Amino acid sequence: MAHVIAVLLLDGVVPFDLGTATQVFSAAGDRYEVRVCGEGPVRTEHGFTIVPEHGLEALDQADTLLIPGIHRGGPVTDGTLPDPIYAALSAFSGRIVSICTGASVLAAAGLLDGRPAATHWAWAKRIAGLYPRVAWDFDVLFVDDGDVLTSAGVGAGIDLCLHIIRSDHGADVANRAARRCVVPPWRDGGQAQFIERPVPSGSGTGTERTRAWVLDRLAEPVTLEEMAGHARMSVRTFTRRFRDETGMSPRQWLLRRRVEQARILLESTDLAVEAVARHSGLGSATALRQHLHAAIGVAPSAYRRTFRHTG
Q: What is the pTM for the complete model shown?
């Protein structure tokens, strides 16, 4: 049976966030059934009204509850929620997801107290002031805290939806959904790259070409000095520019890409764990186990059993 996702709309909803949830999960085929719900007609932030097909009772049959961003109303002004919404959220027992300022709705219901969470950097001061009990991270694109997942704004909602598809069904399904939506299956870095300055594109003065060069050599030992040399920069300049463009250090970025490659190999090949470690550049089965467990909390064998024949 399809996994049911209830998308709950509140007044001031961001239409792009609503479209993100419905479009990306629909791109994964019949694995998900998306039901848009709310307390009657909902006024969007851009002055038009949406009439949800379902009421709050849709949450009773949902496996996942997703809340798009809102740009007005109690959750982003004074920390309050309408009583029926508060009751519905408090009673829900499945996976909970928010996009952008949808996290303020979860916070207003007390669902984020003591937990890490993400939202749009531009709302950081206001939302952190309203909800000081939440461990906000305004740099990352999204936070996966198990049964509660939150994302930064707009495009980061796409990143989170694809991450959920990947977690549920593996890389192949998520990659196909990304291709159908004409978006990358993942993006590097965090919100810092958008707060400070955009990633240079095609100018030849950034680290983009070097990142592409490294991706073709993941199985090989690549040092920071070699990366800087390829970019024709000093190590110090390269490291600073790399962090500006991706939101992380070259070593962090390289490790993420190698773990990602290992996951793809575990899903799509019968290579032994030791061989997967070599082909992904992690070196040994021990290193693969350590890094995979740190990234997603499971061993290579368990990950393969879950995703090898999915799709």
A: 0.70
